[in-house]
Amino acid sequence: MKKLLLPALFLFFGISAGAQNKEWTLQECVEYALENNISVRQSELDVELSEIEISDAVGNLLPRLNASASNSWNTGLTQNVTTGILQTQTTRNFSAGATASMNLFDGLRNVKQLQLAKMSRLASEYSLEKMKDDITLFVANSYLQVLFNKESLKVIEAQHEITLEQLERVQELVNAGSLPKGDLLEIKATAANEEQRMIVAANNVRISLIALAQTLLIKDYENFDIAERDYEVFGNEVIEVPVSQVIANAEEERYEVKVAQANLEMAKKEKEIAKGAYYPSLGAFFNYNTRESGANRILAGGQDPNEPYRQIGIVQSTQEAVVAPNFVTEVGNPLPFFEQLENNDGISYGLQLNVPIFNGFSTRNAVKRREVNILRSEYQLEQAKLDLEANVYQAYTDAKGALKAYEASLVALEAQTLAFEYATERYNVGLTNAFDFSQAKFNFENAQSEVVRTKYEYIFNLKVLELYFGVPVTELKF
């Protein structure tokens, strides 16, 4: 049953691999991740927002211009806008105006706000680059994990081929009575164990491929696969560099420190902006306005020739009538729309000075808060340098240790290869039993697996160290 299950399993993986549209290289995976990763996209949005903040800051340095217009109807006792007399009427009134203003001096806060916006953009760009570095390492680690799992599967498959050859040979010798049946059972047990391990190894390959696809936001898990190639170990020069120089390069090149430094500069600039509120502010304004009305206008006026006077009251003591001139007016149609606008326009302009005297300690407290933020940013910068130094030491130690482990695994593989060849020769002539042969083969397989593991571990740790040394992501060689 197992002999049928195993070929079927590998046939499935073979069909799946044959049906894929593309085999991804590490460089393609990194480039795709940098273009599509959600975290990278969010960091790119932060850069776009910082560009908008710069535009806002530039806009604060420019004059403001606003226009307004109004058209209304009034019914009832209202003032005639032409005569100034209250009367019951229905009138339409139109008014329009434009106002221009400009901040001439505000303690240089607008200028410094522009400088702060540019610093914020730089900090966002640093954060974006740091995010790209992190994503690159994460993708590289996932990619190398897939390669390691595939190489491990190949090691087990190669050993299984040897086991199957030995199984066939031992079967013939047992049938001929040259070897005991126990040797055959030992070889069968070894073959069964290898089949089980191949299934687990194939499953590990599939799981690591799915994990890499998820990192790249690729949903077609079944058809996703990587291009298999032998990644060589090279670029050991950075390990020979003194760790103090690696730390110095990291402090100059790494974005963790650059972001912290940018945040400190921004905190200092925010304090300068807050202190600008201590100074007076001076602004200029200019206003133009005009109006038009649909009410009738007075054409002429004078005393009524037919009734020049009219009684307006009676003197109580004498009962004499009190009279006043009886004026009559002649009302005509309103002037044309644009003629009224021209006749009724006017302008106003001037300067406005605001002097801060007492504002409930708000300005002083704002400055003090900015001073606290400066101290916090200084601590964060110092912590970033300490963390970076610790990370560099860790990466340097890991790379050195991984190199030694890789070199030791090569020596061990050479020794285990000779031991396995010797055990095979002895087993073929009947000088050792199947158990001892299986142990020698198992040790040989472990040595091969250890070479694969230490190789990819060293490659990854070396790339981490190169990043700290200042090698750009685009120039990392795998």
TrEMBL record:
The signal peptide, as residue positions, is 1-19
Task: Name the InterPro entries on file.
Answer: OMP_efflux (IPR003423), TolC-like (IPR051906)
Any matching Pfam family: OEP
Location of the protein in the cell: Cell outer membrane
Residue ranges spanning the membrane: these are none
- Coiled coil start-end: 250-277
Report the sequence similarity comment from the record: Belongs to the outer membrane factor (OMF) (TC 1.B.17) family.
Provide this UniProt record's keywords sorted from A to Z: Cell outer membrane, Coiled coil, Membrane, Signal, Transmembrane, Transmembrane beta strand, Transport
What is the originating organism of this protein?
Answer: Salinimicrobium gaetbulicola
Protein name (Swiss-Prot/TrEMBL): TolC family protein
The top of its lineage is: Bacteria, Pseudomonadati, Bacteroidota, Flavobacteriia, Flavobacteriales
